[in-house]
Write a structure and sequence with these properties.
mainly beta, 2 domains, 5-stranded antiparallel sheet
Length: about 425
Amino acid sequence: MIDKIGQASDTSKWGVTPQKKKQEAKNIITDKVSTGKRKLGVQTEKRLRDLALQKKAGQKLVPGIEDQPAENNWSIGPFRKFEKPIMEPTKEGFDSKNVYNMATIREGDTYYMIYRGEDKNETADDCTGRLGLAVSKDGINFEREPNPIILPDQPYDKQGIEDPRLVKIDDTYVLTYTAYDGKTAKLCLATSKDMRNWEKKGPLFPEFPADVDRTADWTKSGAILPERMKEGPFKDKYIMYFGDTDMWMGYSDDLENWSYVKEPVLRPREGKFDSRIVEPGPPPIKTKDGILLIYNGSTKGKPGENFGGYYAGAVLFDPKDPTKVLKRSEKPLIGPTQDWEKEGYVDNVSFVEGLTVSDDGTWNMYFGGADRSIGLAVADFKPELLSEQAATAAMSMTPGAVAVGIPGSGVYKPTPK
């Protein structure tokens, strides 16, 4: 039957039947219910995950920072952290005064942590940092080996070794660290096949220009991207972010001989959490959007104070030209909120250096609290953040030969003791 304007009588002027409209309405309701169930499922999964993590650690999770930043699609976070340290100084030994400055790597089902220890029997004038090794099966509870694996035994490191960053490239562990001779800090590199016997390569930049905030030849904190650049002005080279006032970028053909870009790639920002310094955190990660670096920033202090506090932020560099910043966090990811972060050897410090991926479905971010203890912050793992061929060594999870950056994507048997 046709009506006066030539349309079927049971059809609207848009050609939609009442039955179709009814089905569309039903579909909308079904979609909303499904979306609600998915959201509820995700929330339930997160709650169960957190409960499991809290049970493993024997303590609660709390917000990573009081003013928690919103989730974004280019970085990791938001973070929750355990309310107490996961590692504290021992009663006696090389790490009886302070434990902090940790580098982490995960291989298969084993987590390794190289950390800085200081002895309570040494004064501030003769306190020399040494690097120890701790091992864990869950990324939370670590068992320490009794003796240091790297000692200060060279003229350039006679006052101590600190600030390690660790990657594995092919079958070689590559460790950057800061050596201190009592006057000048120098960024150094060492390599190992078994993580216990290390060959020191010496300072990477024997000469480095001074400026108003930095002593001549002073360099620190090198975070290496553990794969060669695939394109752009640094094609086929390794890159490294380093520095502890402004942030610089180095590049190398062989990981031992390094040059640097003549201008900083990241500077402090007035009025932000990083208004005083910027310093690399864990090794950078290659994502689908660029090169993601978690970094440390400190605020300017009040008159008479050196600084107001240390926080962790995130920056995304261009995947073709790693000197160019694409995005940068406006708010910190974590900061000192707990008493053990606010009071210690150096007050008001949350300093990040280690990052792994856990089978619990989280990023594990390790940090030093008040330069005395080691803490752990976690964020939900987002596989969509990574490019399909992301180098998983950048996440300190499995060797770089494994292409897909998801937990359990590769099996690797670490070198036995």
